[in-house]
Amino acid sequence: MKRFKMPPWLVLLLPAIIILSAVVLIPLVLSLYSSFTPYKLTRPESLYKWIGTFNYEKALGDTKFWAAFGRTILLLTIALNLEMLCGLGLALMVSKVTRGQRALRTAMMFPMMFSPILVGFQFKFIFNDNVGLVNNALQSLGITDMAIPWLVDGKLAMFAIIFAEMWTSTSVFAILILAGLFAIPQDPLEAAKVDGCTPIQSFRFVTLPFLMPFIYIAMAIRSLDVARAYDIVQIMTNGGPARRTELLWTLIGRTGYVDAKMGYANAMGYISIFLAIFFTIYFFRKLTAARAELGMGV
Amino acid sequence: MTKFTNGASIAVLALGLASGAQAGQFDGVTIDAKLIGGQQYEALYARIPEWEAATGAKVNIISKKNHFELDKEFKSDIAAGTTGWCVGSNHSSFAAQYPSLYTDLNGLIAQDSIDGFVGANIAAATLGGRLVMLPRAQFDVSALYYQKDLYTDEAKSTAFKAEYGYDLTVPETWAQVKDQAIFFADGPNFYGTQYAGKDEAIVGRYYEMVVAEGGKFFNDDFSPAFDSAEGKQALQWFVDLYDAKAVPAGTTNYLWDDLGNGFASGTIALNLDWPGWAGFFSDPSASKVAGNLGVAPAPKGSAGVRTGWSGFHGFSVTEQCDDKAAAASLVDFLTNEDSQKIESAAGPLPTRTAVWDYVTEDAKGDAFRTEVLAAFKETAKTAFAVPATPLWIEATNLIYPELQAAILSDKTVDEALADAAEAVDEMMREEGVY
Question: Which range is the signal sequence, renumbered to this chain (chain B) (predicted)?
Fold first, then answer.
């Protein structure tokens, strides 16, 4: 009798297949399955009751879910663009520094080293209406005699959250764009100078196209980060007050772990994943187009 | 030293025996426990070695977290089927959520031990006829802390009487609290009062106000009943104070720590808060109101009923525990008279009748402590627990954003309560409650 022998490619891939199945595939399939059940953490038997697309229909018809969805896209759009602009400015300035540039680059990365939870606590205190630094500073300087409700007013609270996000992550853009600046060949810039381009024209028509692939990579990475924003928001406002800062993951987290409605939370999660997939595809397409424009191939 | 150790061991053994355990009764047994963590709870846990010495069992604390974190862990344990540990910290507001996790302690605990607890506490710890937890000396009900000098200021008294037509005295009703809070407020440096503004906390405060106004939160079938005249009146109280800027603008983001620290900073006139804060507020190194601190029973609503949302911590034994008798013995020990005397010495309120008498007697001669105990004892007489439904926390998550929306004028009181009631009704129907 001939012993069954697995083909070598399968033997070599097997550890990866087993690990990926255990860590990614099985939880993914299980969570997808549970989104078609009324699964509650406190009632394990509810995992075996099939309710079809009820959870999806409920989420799709829920204005609170769509409001959170819209708010997440708003946060994503504003935070990403502001971070990109600030990161670009920061990188351009740091690239001109001739002495102490390494120290500056290291210092620039400090905010990234803090846990988002701690960043949340830090900004919750800074923006506290009663004992917070911002209000105390504004009152001491005589700019206002009111306690500005930074974390209560809908617009101000979103501003505070975006500010915290920017503080912690602008350096991601700055570092990646700085790497792009160092990679730019000097010949086209010199040619532009010889042709009489102003510094703004050189930047607009030479530097920026070279930087675009780096910007899109940073955008793709950060869009995934911001689309799953949870920790900073959870600490600063917990999605409130009155759902004014409710984002997808604060809503999903509360539904899944506090209300224990894991089936419904998973359904909302799967709908939300499309948001992340959309932005990833969008930025990779942009990246590919930018690379093609530079003749870097696809 | 040896003599002392021997003496201590004998004393320990005697204590253990007094709690109902017999020497060596549980030799070789290990009890895995998941307990609430925090400085204020440690004094009791320091007694565990005494129970170990008396019974021969070992206690292995496998998790120590705050109740919100423990709650998530218990839910994950139920989902994963990993409920083989034996003793867990429990809370009256959370207990109804774990119908299958904990065993009935009736039969495992001697009846005379159960009879020693305050009847209302045992009633609140009994769900569907099953005694799911034994209360420890961590009974919570809120009384009114206030700054005394506000009531001895002649100019204020005169101005108040001229404006409101009655004497400025420590408020006995919530209507008076509102008048006085608006009168005292002088933002952004001083506010009349404050309230917890989110999560279960604001719903708890609203719930007790509905009861004080003579209303019901849920009907008998757990359909929402708070969208009533009394419910609207209760919510209007919160709205009026916010509109009048008598509370800090950020109050809708505040939880217990923010409130406690706010009152201790001396910027709040009246503060409905828990007994555990009495020590902190009266500590001159931590609080600016120390030495100027008064405590009164919780005020009454328009129905003549005091607010009295209460809760208590306790210990439960899991259904899957291998040695329920040993686990129940530990729970009995941690909630017996000696344990409650140790815990309540630091300020928390007991749940055993005999220990209430003991702390009252012990406080004689200490005017502040006597005042604190009198205020909380009076409030505790009419205290009430949260509605006994496993969906309480889930209902609060649907209600609190609507209460906030009314407070922040995103919705009218009528709209907010109608939306909250509709959401709770839908959830109850979906869960098959009715």
Answer: 1-23
A104 to chain B, any CB pair closer than 8 A? The answer is no
A135 interaction partners in chain B (CB closer than 8 Å): 188
Q: Distance, in angstroms, between B190 CA and closest chain A CA?
A: 10
Task: Please tell me the distance in Å from A255's CA to the nearest CA on chain B.
Answer: 9
Q: Do B262 and A130 touch (CB under 8 A)?
A: yes
- Sorted by where each begins, the domain ranges of chain B are 2-140+310-374, 143-309+386-430
Contact A147 B188 (CB under 8 A): yes
Give the three-class secondary structure for A150: coil
Best B193, B202, B253 member to test A by mutation, with max A CBs in 10 Å, is B253
Within the 218-257 window of chain A, which residues sit less than 8 Å (CB to CB) from chain B?
Answer: 237-238, 240-244, 246, 254, 257
Cβ-Cβ contacts under 8 Å, B267 against chain A: 130
d(Cα A246, Cα A69) in Å, to the nearest integer? 9
Please state the domain extents for chain A: 70-293
Q: Do B143-309+386-430 and B2-140+310-374 fall under one CATH topology? A: yes
Do the interacting molecules here have an ipTM over 0.90? no
**Which CATH class name applies to B2-140+310-374?**
alpha beta
CATH superfamily of B143-309+386-430: Periplasmic binding protein-like II (3.40.190.10)
Domain A70-293 CATH (choose: 1.10.3720.10, 3.30.70.20, 3.50.30.40, 1.10.10.10): 1.10.3720.10
- Which residue of B249, B401, B407 is in closest CB contact with A147? B249
Per-residue pLDDT of chain A (298 residues; tens, 9 = 90+): 667 788 899 999 999 999 998 899 999 999 999 999 999 888 888 999 999 999 999 999 999 999 999 999 899 899 999 999 999 999 999 998 888 888 998 898 899 888 889 999 999 989 988 778 999 899 889 898 888 999 998 899 999 999 999 999 899 899 999 999 998 888 888 998 898 888 899 988 889 988 988 898 888 888 888 877 788 998 898 887 899 999 999 999 989 988 889 999 999 999 988 777 887 788 888 888 887 877 765 4
Q: Chain B interface, mutation test: which of A40, A152, A238, most B Cβ atoms within 10 Å?
A: A152
Residues 6+ apart with CB under 8 A from A59: A65, A264, A267, A268, A271
Distance from CA of B320 to the nearest CA of A (A): 15
User: In terms of CA atoms, which chain B residue is nearest residue A261?
Assistant: B394
